[in-house]
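User: I'm putting together a teaching handout on how sequence relates to shape, and I'd like one worked example. Could you take Lycopene cyclase protein from Streptomyces cyanogenus, show the sequence you're using, and then write out its predicted structure as tokens right after it?

Assistant: Happy to. First the sequence, then the structure tokens directly below it.
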Amino acid sequence: MELEADVAVVGAGAAGLSLALRLARPPAHARRLDTVLLAAPPGPGRAAPRTWCFWEPDGGPYDEALTASWQRLRVHGADGAAVTAGIAPLHYKMLRSDAFEELAGRAMAASGGRVARVDAAVGRITPAPGGGALVHARRADGTRVAVRARRVFDSRPLPRLPPARTTLFQHFRGWFVRTARPVFDPSVVELMDFRTPQPAHGLSFGYVLPVGPCEALVEYTEFSGRLLDRAGYDRALRDYAGRVLGLEGYEVTGCEQGVIPMTDAGFPRRAAPDVYRIGACAGATRPSTGYTFSAVQRQTAAVAAALHSGRRPLPPRPHSARARLMDAVLLHALDRGRVDGPAFFTRLFTRVPAPRLLRFLDGRTGLAEDLGIGAHVPVAPMLASALTLPFVPRRTSPAA
């Protein structure tokens, strides 16, 4: 079976769904594009439901699908001291992947057949005679499907990361918990709680997204080079939930687990003349924080606008050169143990107004604001890392 389309989107994660949704909702007088979204069929190849968090003003395009949103964040230092900050006019938003998939599905269904979804596992992408590319896939029943498209956008994770000077992983496991009595404050997110045992290299913290007085997503997160096994994450979660949060008699109603590469690698945005990469595999993840969703929105908005206007749709780099340099220095400093990670982030949230810091973490601050924020970081170790970084060789790492 062979399908023809103007655009093929490979992968139905945040990047693939975001691009398909934007193509299903073209602006007035834009070029109409026949699009095929290829999603992994049900089974081991399909990613488990997961949670994406980001910040933006109220009234965003996905607000109807949100699980919750907040305007206050809290950071606990390793010594137990807490900093709680309002982030108005921003909202910290929690979006579950299954709700986003339903929203995108409704938009595709309303597109009049312009955007279609095909559940099939993509094996390879090859050049098509005369231009464009052929996407070769297989349905769950073994049926072969080929999609001939003028442009292909691939959002699948890379099997190996590009060469980098520093590669850490943000790896985490979370429990959705329900308690018998009210214990959570649903008005504030526990963004970073450093009252967790710290690894020898990197840092760890707890993370709590309360969706009600008795319900929350409680996560244990590490920034380090070595992953834990499931038993290790569960031990850390039990310790955090019991010793730090004081939870008793809670029920675990669900789990989620993930690994996010935090690297100063340069990600290529084009795999072949008519094949482009989008999302985390194109560098959308902010190396210093692991946040990805907002950068994916900027990237896919630019791609959709280019496609609708007939321009070359090379995905833009989601983060500026200055932001990537600052992140590379911080990753190197963390990896070499030059800075105390918990003290570093706690100090920033203590000294810098939270809305400005969030704009900084999202790469939306100017040079003057960056310099002002830089005044609150440990200068000597960061300068040492900046001076030694150019001499560190780049190495290729497997994608965890």
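A couple of points you could highlight for students: The longest strand covers residues 251-263. The mean pLDDT is 93.
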